[in-house]
Amino acid sequence: MIFFDLDETLLDTSGCRPPAVEASFRVAAQKYPNLSLESWRRASEEVKAEMHDLWLNSPNSGAELLREGSYRILKKLGIDDSELATDVSQAYYRTWVSHLKLFPDARAVLEALRGRFRLGMISNGPSDVQRYKLKLFDLEREFDPIVISGEIGVAKPDPAIFRRAVELARVLPSEALYVGDSPMYDITGAKSIGMKMIWVNRNSLPTENLEIKPDGVVRDLREILKITVLQRV
Ligand SMILES: [Mg+2]
Fold first, then answer.
1. pTM for the model
2. Interval between CA 179 and ligand 1 midpoint (Å)
3. 106 CA to middle of ligand 1, Å?
């Protein structure tokens, strides 16, 4: 049984935020022309940091969280306008998803694994946002189970989300492999319950500094097809 992470493992979200922040600024600046892009960016970063944990664990929808975030950004800039916050958050989200990309190696590796292994997903984020991304790239049918932190109220690296996933799949942790990009969320979490783990290290970060070692490291997802740990899951 192979479980995948979604963001930055299969989906490239790296180009999403800068244009989304700018698009949301333009909507706000139509109503409040004195706003500056620089202070908007700064306030956006502050709010993003403030809401980081909520984004992972909250039962609220991504749409609600983005609206709350936009409200807070405006508030930091001296504007109390919940109606505008809705418009701002919609512009942000629309632009954000329009810049999402599937990594070029993702489709190929899923096709190669399909039929040979059961595939599941463990992903952090609000239900509506994560489900929308899966639908956008027609990925929902590839994975069963799909375990999303916003749907169960517990996020990676908490061992509970990994345990939930193997229980739903009716496999032992030792019979499951996790493939993910984040040392903090993915390696730590998966190894904490005894799953095998392949680290997707697309940016060639040094492996010596890892506190917990994965069972394999790849730069390109297609390399996982050659890793021997696959023979044992
Ligand atoms: Mg990730």
1. 0.94
2. 9
3. 13
